[in-house]
Specification:
- The structure is a single chain.
- It contains 5 helices and 9 strands, in the order βαββαβαβββββαα.
- The protein is α/β, with parallel strands linked by helices.
- It has helices at residues 15-23, 65-78, 88-96, 180-189, 203-232; strands spanning 2-7, 27-32, 47-50, 82-86, 101-116, 132-143, 149-155, 162-165, 169-172.
- A hairpin with a 3-residue loop joins β8 (162-165) and β9.
- Strands 2-1-3-4-9-8-7-5-6 form a 9-stranded mixed sheet, sandwiched between helices.
- It has a single domain, classed as Class I glutamine amidotransferase (GATase) domain (Rossmann fold, 3-Layer(aba) Sandwich), CATH 3.40.50.880.
- Helix content is 31%, strand content 27%.
Length: 233
């Protein structure tokens, strides 16, 4: 099984998602869009993992590769590939499926709890998850739920935290893949985002949150990935 990762910036890689895929025997390749790597074709891969980044879905003039990336995401979904979008990746999936992407009421950065919606019971990738779980966030934008998708996770700071489309496409606004290293990279390279705001934590709070919640968050990610893998057989 071949899994392709789309990486938008050097400091937002697949982290725990990549570790799990490699451990399960997937052949993992990374397309570094910021370096001009060519995109794979949807018919040559089994999984498509779309990572986060500081750019927005509409920033095609600054990042022309976004246009072809959206075409690849659309093709992968239509061909029934397993597609997982994280943060910007989730927003790209939402836009490709016809939903609006726009600024959230306020930025959400740090560890904040999220809750399964009633609809999550109908979404195969979200079965056997706890009703409430902690998640690491780093976003200023949000999305509407696409037509035909199931809204699966909500939060106090952002109502639309996740959705599932069909059996094999999942969008997560939050970062279950986070490690201490990946959080450190975000703090280092996106420090301008850490402002005085109600839902923006300090770096110390983020690292303390990882010590408290990192294992639980990783367990939720593993369950989602295992559920997706079961649908991909």
């Amino acid at each position: 099984m071949k899994a392709a990762v789309l990486q938008h910036v050097p400091f937002e890689g697949p982290a725990l998602a990549g570790t799990w895929l490699s451990g399960e025997g997937y052949s993992l390749s990374t397309t570094r869009l910021f370096s001009g790597d060519p995109l794979p074709r949807a018919d040559t891969i089994d999984w498509l993992i779309i990572m986060g980044g500081p750019m927005g879905v509409a920033d095609t003039e600054l990042y022309p590769w976004l246009t072809d990336e959206k075409k690849l995401i659309e093709s992968a979904i239509k061909k029934g590939k397993t597609v997982l979008g994280i943060c910007l990746g989730a927003q790209l999936i939402a836009e490709v499926l016809g939903a609006a992407v726009y600024r959230n009421t306020e930025p959400e950065i740090g560890w904040f709890p999220v809750t399964l919606t009633p609809g999550a019971a109908q979404a195969s990738a979200f079965k056997e998850l706890p009703q409430n779980f902690p998640a690491f966030h780093w976003h200023g934008d949000t999305f509407d739920i696409p037509l035909g998708a199931v809204h699966t996770v909500s939060g106090n700071g952002c109502a639309h935290q996740a959705f599932q489309y069909g059996d094999r496409t999942v969008a997560l606004q939050f970062h279950l893949e986070s490690t201490a290293e990946s959080i450190s990279d975000l703090v280092r390279f996106s420090s301008d985002d850490i402002i005085d705001a109600p839902l923006v934590q300090s770096p110390d709070e983020m690292f303390e949150g990882y010590r408290q919640y990192g294992k639980e968050s990783a367990s939720v990610l593993k369950t989602i990935l295992m559920n997706l893998a079961a649908e991909s057989v």
